[in-house]
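Cast an eye over this sequence plus C-alpha cells and explain the fold to me:
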Amino acid sequence: MLLLLGTHISVNQKVVQAQTQVPPATTTKSLCPAQLGASIDAAINRPLFSRTRWGILVKNLVSDQTLYSYDAQKYFTPASNVKLLTTAAALKQLGANFRIRTSVYQDGDGILRIVGRGDPSLKNAQLTLLAKELRQQGITQVNQLIADDSYFQGDIVPPSWQWEDVQAYYGAPVNSLILNENAAVLTVLPQTIGKPLQLKWADPTEAYQWRVENNSVTTQKDEPGLVEVSRDLKGAVLHLQGQLAVNSQPDITAIAVFDPIQNFLRHFRQSLVTEGISVQQTSSASGGKNEQEVAAVESPPLSELLMETNLNSNNLFAEALLRALANKQQLAKNQTTADVGLKVMRDTLTQLGVNPTSYSLVDGSGLSRKNLISPEALVQVLQLMAASPETKVFRASLPVAGVSGTLKNRFRNTSAQGIVQAKTGTLTGAISLSGYIDSPQYEPLAFSIIVNQSEQSVSTLRQAIDDIVVSLTQLHRC
C-alpha cells in the first residue's frame, strides 16, 4: 500500500530506508535457555488460546541446537511467510543483479508491439521514458500499438484466491504487462452533511473507466466513520458505502484494476501522445517475431525487488518473481507459468537443502489459504540462506523490528527493536512471524511462529507473538 499511495517514491529510496538501523532499546530482563520453554508455554497456553493452533521453532544458528519446538513439523497456513521461500528461490536461481526487461518492437511500418515480461515495478514514469526514446528515433505516428501480454501463461488471478481479496489492491491481477501495480488509487472525502461522500481518483482519467454506485453519506461532526470501497467482479463497477463525519480526514485506498491490458494501453497511449506521437489504433495480441527492438526499460535489480516484496509484503511483486523463475523453462501443454515457477522454486530449495515434504505451496505470495508450510521448513530456509553467499542481500530485504517495513510500528521500545529481522504474515485466522535475532548477549537465532484457527483478534495474536519474540531477545548464557 505504501508503494501504491506514494508512486513518486522510487524503489531505490526504499533501499536506503530498509538499511537504516536504530540502536535497540536497553533492557534489564534476562532469560536462561533452560527457562525459555516454560516462558513460551505460559504464553501460548493461556485460556484465551484454548482453541488456537500454535507452531513454533527456535534454533541456534551457530550450533543448530533446538531451543524450543512445538508442533514444528506440522502443516499450517503460513500467510505471507511464503514470501521467504519465493524470495530465497528467486535470489538463488536468478541472482541479485537480475532485471526484468520491457521491450518495444517495430513489427512493420507504423506498427509497434510492446512486450511485457512481468516487471511489477513498472510505473507511468517508465512509459514516459519509452515514449521519449521512440520520439528521439523520429517516430511521430503509430498506426497500430499492440500490447503483447503472453509472456506469463495462465489465469491472471490465481484461482485459489478469495473473492474478497481479488478486488483489493493487495490482490491485483498478475500479468506480463503490469502498470502501477495494476491498481488505482482513490480518495474518499466528506461533503456537506447529508450528501454522498466525494470520490477523487489519483489519476483523473480513471473516472471515465468506472461506473460508481455511491451509497455513502456525510454525517454530523465527530460522528464515527467507516467507508467500504469494493469492486464488481464482472465489470468496472465500483461500490462505495459507509459514512464519514463532515470534519473527518480523507480516506485513501486503492482498488485492483478490472482489465490490466486495457489499463496499460490507455496509459501508454497517453504517454506517446504527450511526447508528440499520434496513435491510430490499439490492440492486444501475441506471437510477434520481436526482431527489431526500438526501445526498452528495465526494472531495478532483483536485490531491490526483493526489498519491496518482503519489506512491504507486496503480493504482486512476489507473484511476479515466482513467474520469473520460469523464464528459461519450456511450458508443457496445459501448464501455467505459475506452475513451472513453483516447480523451479521447489527444485531450487531442495538443492539448497530444504526438505521438499515440509511444505506445499500453490502461490508465491501466501494470499491463498491452500498454502501449507511447517515452522521447520521456514527455519530451514532461514538457516540455509544465512549460510549462503547471498545472505546479505536476503537479510537486507527483511523488515527490522521497530525500524522498517511491516515491522516499523512493532517492537518499539523493547529489547527486540533493531535486532530482529523477520517476515510478517497476516490472513484472517492465520498470523505468522519468521526471521532472525542478533542478540548482543547470546548466539544468533532463527525462529518461526505461526498461529492458525483462532477466533482472537489480529492485534491479540500479534501481541502474543511479539511477547514470545521479546523473550527470545532476552536470552543470555547461563
Remarks:
- The radius of gyration is 24 Å.
- The domain at 101-156+259-300 is CATH 3.50.80.20 (D-tyrosyl-trna(Tyr) Deacylase; Chain: A;).
